[in-house]
C-alpha cells in the first residue's frame, strides 16, 4: 500500500449467512465481505479508536491522497498502511480506515500536527481464519481512508482498491485484479535492527513485500517501526523525502514511527541489497523539516 498496505484491537466475530454468488455456500457479496474484513481487522499500532462518522462533522480542507493500483491483502499477514494527506491548516492528528461504505472507522493517532503534507503509518492484520467463511476467490473490495483533525472532524473518504486473497492466482476472479506475484506469501519471519537517536537501538521482526509495490521492508518492535519504501529486491538506492512530501510514488525513502507516535523521514542517504539482506544509512528529519540525526541498520527477508 502507499504504500502497503501497539494496542491490538481484537473484535469477536458473529458469522451470518450472506448472499452466495459463487454457489459454494460461502460469502461472496462485496458488502458482506467488507463487513467480515472490518470484523476481523486488528490494528497493531498504539491507541487505536473508532468513530461513528454520523456523529462528527466533515473537514473538506484536508485531502487524503487517492492511491493507484490494487493492494493485495492476505489473511494472517501483517500489512502496513500509509495514508498521505494535504492539510493546509496543519491540523491532522489521526488517520483511519474502513472496508466498505458504512460503519465505524478505525483511527490511529499520528503526531503530524503542524504538517501540511505528511503520511500517517500503522500496521494491521486480517484474521487468518477469515477465508474459511468467504468464497475461495480474489474479492475486489474498496477500502476507505480518512484523516481526523484536532477539532474532531474527519475528511471525506479516499478510496483504495484492495483484493482480499482467498483464492489461488489461477482462479478467474484473480486474473486482471492482482499480479501473480501478489499471491506468493510475503517474506515474514526475518529479523532486523537499526539505531536512531530518538529510539535508540531497536531489534525486531522484519516484514517484506514483493516487487509489485516497488519492494518494501519494515522492522517493528514494541510499537516502534521503520519502513523502507521502493527498495526493490536487488541493487542500491538513494533516499529522499520526495515520496512523502512531493508525491513521488517511485522514490526510495525511510519512515520511522516511534511508540509515542512521533514520525521521522529520510532526507538523504542510501541502502543496498546483499542477497536477502538490506543495509541502509540515512539522514533523518521530522515532518516539519527539523534535522533529527541519522539512522543505520539492516534487515533480512525470509
What are its keywords?
Lipocalin; Immunoglobulin-like; 8-stranded antiparallel barrel; disordered N terminus; mainly beta; 302 residues; 44% strand; globular; single chain
Description:
By secondary structure, this protein is mainly β. It has two domains: 30-182, Immunoglobulin-like (Sandwich), CATH 2.60.40.10; 186-300, Lipocalin (Beta Barrel), CATH 2.40.128. The chain contains two helices and 19 strands. A hairpin with a 2-residue loop joins strand 17 (263-274) and strand 18. It is globular and about 55 Å long. The two termini are 20 Å apart.
Question: Outline of this structure?
Answer:
The protein is mainly beta. The protein is built from two helices and 19 strands. The protein has an eight-stranded antiparallel barrel with strand order 11-12-13-14-16-17-18-19.
CATH evolutionary superfamily of the largest domain: Immunoglobulins
User: Do you know the CATH topology of the largest domain?
Assistant: Immunoglobulin-like
Q: Which class best fits the helix and strand makeup?
A: mainly beta
| Number of distinct helices | 2
Task: Give the proportion of residues in helices.
Answer: under 10%
Order of helices and strands: HEEEEEEEEEEEEEEEHEEEE
Count of the domains: 2
> What fraction of the residues are assigned to beta strands by DSSP?
35-45%
The count of β-strands is 19
Largest sheet features:
8 strands, antiparallel, barrel
**pLDDT averaged over residues:** 82
Uncertain runs = 1-22
User: What strand order characterises the main sheet?
Assistant: 11-12-13-14-16-17-18-19
What is the CA–CA distance across the termini? 20 Å
CATH class of the largest domain: Mainly Beta
What value does the Rg take, in angstroms?
19 Å
CATH architectural label of the largest domain? Sandwich
- Coarse morphology: globular
Amino acid at each position: 500500500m502507499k504504500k502497503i498496505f501497539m494496542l491490538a484491537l481484537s473484535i469477536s466475530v458473529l458469522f451470518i449467512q450472506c448472499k452466495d454468488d459463487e454457489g459454494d455456500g460461502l460469502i461472496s457479496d462485496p458488502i458482506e465481505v467488507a463487513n467480515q474484513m472490518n470484523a476481523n481487522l486488528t490494528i497493531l499500532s498504539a491507541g487505536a479508536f473508532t468513530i461513528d462518522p454520523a456523529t462528527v462533522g466533515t473537514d473538506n480542507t484536508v485531502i487524503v491522497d487517492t492511491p493507484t493500483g490494487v493492494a493485495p491483502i492476505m489473511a494472517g499477514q501483517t500489512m502496513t498502511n500509509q495514508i498521505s494527506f494535504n492539510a493546509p491548516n496543519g491540523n491532522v492528528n489521526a488517520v483511519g480506515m474502513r472496508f466498505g461504505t458504512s460503519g465505524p472507522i478505525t483511527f490511529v493517532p499520528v503526531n503530524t500536527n503542524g504538517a501540511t503534507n505528511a503520511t500517517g503509518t500503522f500496521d494491521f492484520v486480517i484474521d487468518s481464519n477469515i477465508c474459511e467463511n468467504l468464497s475461495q476467490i480474489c474479492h475486489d473490495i474498496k477500502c476507505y481512508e480518512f484523516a481526523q483533525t484536532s477539532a474532531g472532524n474527519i475528511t471525506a473518504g479516499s478510496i483504495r482498491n484492495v483484493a482480499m486473497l482467498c483464492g489461488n492466482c489461477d482462479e478467474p476472479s484473480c486474473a486482471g485484479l492482482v499480479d501473480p506475484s501478489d499471491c506468493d506469501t510475503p517474506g515474514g519471519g526475518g529479523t532486523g535492527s537499526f539505531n536512531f537517536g530518538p529510539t535508540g537501538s531497536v531489534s525486531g521482526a522484519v516484514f517484506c513485500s514483493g516487487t509489485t509495490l516497488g519492494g518494501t521492508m519494515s522492522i517493528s518492535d514494541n510499537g516502534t517501526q521503520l519502513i523502507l519504501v521502493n527498495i526493490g529486491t536487488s541493487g542500491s538506492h538513494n533516499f529522499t523525502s520526495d515520496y512523502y512530501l512531493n508525491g513521488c510514488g517511485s522514490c526510495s525513502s525511510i519512515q520511522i514511527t516511534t511508540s509515542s507516535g512521533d514520525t521521522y523521514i529520510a532526507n538523504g542517504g542510501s541502502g543496498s541489497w546483499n542477497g536477502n539482506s538490506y543495509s541502509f544509512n540515512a539522514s533523518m528529519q521530522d515532518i516539519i523539516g527539523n534535522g533529527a540525526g541519522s539512522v543505520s541498520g539492516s534487515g533480512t527477508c525470509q
